[in-house]
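>> received
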Amino acid sequence: MIEQVPDRYSGPNDPEYHSFRRMEFPDMTRPDTILIGPYSPRQRERLESRFVTRLVDTPQQLTSLASDERDACQAVAYHGHSPFGAAEMDALPNLRLIANFGVGYDDIDIEAAKGRDITVTNTPDVLNDDVADLAVGMYLALKRRLIDGDRWVRSGDWTRRGAFPLNAHASGLRVGILGMGRIGKEIADRMAAFKTTLHYQSRQPKQVPADWIYHAEAIELARHVDVLFITVVGGEETRHLVSAEILDAMPDEAIVVNVSRGTVIDEEALIARLQDKRLAGAALDVFANEPDVDLRLCDQENVLLQPHQGSGTVHTREAMGDLQYANLLAFAEGRELPTPVN
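>> returned
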């Protein structure tokens, strides 16, 4: 008995998707699937009920499996941020599917997968709201010093030292979205309620409200905003897209909010400008070498740090697992994959 998913996934609010039917699958092939990374008990139980599974922590541990186990593997359920490249794929000679847990797939070598006739899927849309909510929450927490205010009360400073120091205004500013994709649009919609002027950059203009201002180049966007939300995809194409030059183009009182990938920002350049007060602050959910965060960021009072938890709610992580499972099940049944990448 397993859960059946719709043939086509139409989003996290699709009632059909969240009211699975249970049915028998008699005499059906149970393709061997290797699970990589930390799965919740519910997710692992469901995967194990449908597929013949093995579990490893990272792609680099695939070679620790017996050769017959690696030869039998047809699909990988991938949940992690370690590199999954040609060498790891070659360890699984009959691999045909990598079902990624997450919308970002920059850790997977897509070109290597294409060359080996391996399809990669991801889990878009289901995490848009949570990431956008966190981005806006980080913005407010940084501008209004919410964490410092909490400490002011808890420590007794309010009694001993009096009123909390004044902080920065958060409404009516010029807001920039670097990468007007699904998540960028959700952030922009939320920030519009703060009486802001919206600017954005993408490869081409998008269908957005007429008063949102398009910039073809990231540096032009940087020159016109007081806060820059970074929502572009990760990978080599966007590595250090937010360069020293772009950071220098921003006003001194501007802040940066990054919920994409740590590699998108030149972290050395960012740290230097935060230390010299050439930027007013940064709110970061992602880092160049996470989870080993540069201690210079930890020492900065004008930086708010989060542990890469943009999609980190129970609801969304389960929805991501549901969509990953939908791709694996479609593969097992020879149906069209809901969310292929390549």
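>> The chain has a mean pLDDT of 91.
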